[in-house]
Amino acid sequence: MIFITGDTHGGIDIKKFSSSNFPEGRSLTKDDYVIVCGDFGCIWDGSREQAWLLNWYKDKPWTTLFVDGNHENFDMLYDFPVEEWNGGKTHRINGSVLHLMRGQIFSLAGLKFFTFGGAMSTDKIFRQEHVSWWSQEIPSREEEAAAIFNLTKHNFAIDYIVTHTAPTAIVEFLNRFDRLRDPTSGMLDKFVPKLQFKHWYFGHFHTSQRINDQFTCLYNEIIRLV
C-alpha cells in the first residue's frame, strides 16, 4: 500500500501518524510506503530529538519516503549517501527513511512517481543561513535539467507527482500571493504543458484541500493511493 500526506516539521506534526488518526498504519509492513510532501524536518540540527525522531520512524511498520521542503538542513541532507532505488536517486537516511531526490522518477507498486522538492521560505529574512535557512531550498539548474531529462525518457507520462510547492496557477487559486515569486513554482510551470498525470500532490501551505481533479494540497490528511 502507498499513502501520502503533508508536512511533518520534525516532531511538530507527527500526531497524524498516531494509531487513532492513522489506524491503517498498524497493519502495514516495510514493503508499504508513506510519502511526506516536504518539510520532513527531521534532518535539522543533529540533536537528540532528531535522533529520537529518526528512530521513531525506523520503528514504524512502514517505510517513510519524503521530498524535501524549504525547512530542511540541506548541508546535512546532502551529506547522506546517494543510492539508486526503484529507478531514481535517493538519500538513504536509515533503513526505513529515504529522501526522494529532485527531478527523479520512481516505480512503486507498478506506478510512476515524479518527485521535485524545494520551495522558497517567505520568512528567510528572520533566519540565519546554514543555521535555520539554506539557499539550496530552491532547486538548482542541474536539478531542473535532471527533471527534464528523466521526464523526457518517460515521454512526460507519469502516474503521480509529488512536490512541496505547486505551479503558479495553483498557488494563485490558494490565494497565497506571498508565494508567487517562488522560483520553484516557475520551474514547475515549465513542466506542466507537457505532463500527463493522474494526480499531483503537494504540501507547503498548511491546509488539506482538493483543488480540482488533478491537484491536492495536503497537510494533516493522509490519503491512500494504492
From TrEMBL:
Which Pfam families does this UniProt record tie to the protein? Answer: Metallophos
Stretches of the chain forming a coiled coil according to its record: none
Q: Which GO terms describe its molecular function?
A: hydrolase activity
Q: Which residues form the Calcineurin-like phosphoesterase domain?
A: 2-207
What protein name does the entry list?
Calcineurin-like phosphoesterase
Identify the taxonomic lineage of the organism of origin.
Bacteria, Bacillati, Bacillota, Negativicutes, Selenomonadales
